Amino acid sequence: MIGRLRRLGGRLRSELEVHRRVLADPRTPRPARWLLGAAVAYALSPVDLVPDWIPVLGYLDDALVVPLLAWLALRLVPPEVVSESRGAVRREAGVDE
User: Fold this and answer.
1) How far apart are CA 4 and CA 93, in angstroms?
2) How much of the chain, in percent, has pLDDT values that exceed 70?
3) What is the pLDDT of residue 31?
4) Which of 59, 65, 68, 92 is the most exposed place for a label (fewest CB within 10 A)?
5) Cβ partners under 8 Å of residue 87, min gap 6
6) 22-38 pLDDT, tens digit each
7) Distance between CA atoms of 73 and 36, rounded to whole angstroms?
8) Rg (CA), the chain
9) What is the span of the domain harbouring residue 33?
10) pLDDT(96) > 70
């Protein structure tokens, strides 16, 4: 169980690094930058679509909105930018491609 959580945390960290690299790439279109920024802002914002005090639904909106915004943003980014960013993160982590 602990091992699975560590692997999940590692994947989350590497995915956040991929998003950071995509944002820093000059080939990333502005709408994608706005969507990724909105995902980060929504994740950090105390204001939610559904208040957190409502059981299950309060946290479910965070679990759906943030990944949806990130997914939409990555759909707007040229595929080569995303693949180059993922490759760079894998190389830095020492993972074979």
Assistant:
1) 18
2) 97
3) 96
4) 92
5) 97
6) 999 999 999 999 998 88
7) 6
8) 15
9) 2-93
10) no
Which pair of tokens denotes residue 5?
């959580």
Which residues neighbour 85 within 8 Å (Cβ) at sequence distance 6 or greater? 18, 21, 22, 25
SS (H, E, C) the chain: CHHHHHHHHHHHHHHHHHHHHHHHCCCCCHHHHHHHHHHHHHHHCCCCCCCCCCCCHHHHHHHHHHHHHHHHHHHHCCHHHHHHHHHHHHHHHCCCC
- CA 79 vs CA 21, 36, 48, 74, 86: distances in Å: 13, 16, 31, 8, 11
Place of tokens 């995902």: 39
Does residue 19 contact residue 70 with C-beta atoms inside 8 Å? yes
Tally of domains in the chain:
1
Burial category of 18 from C-beta neighbours within 10 Å (exposed 0-12, middle 13-18, buried 19 and up):
buried
Question: pTM to 2 decimals?
Answer: 0.73
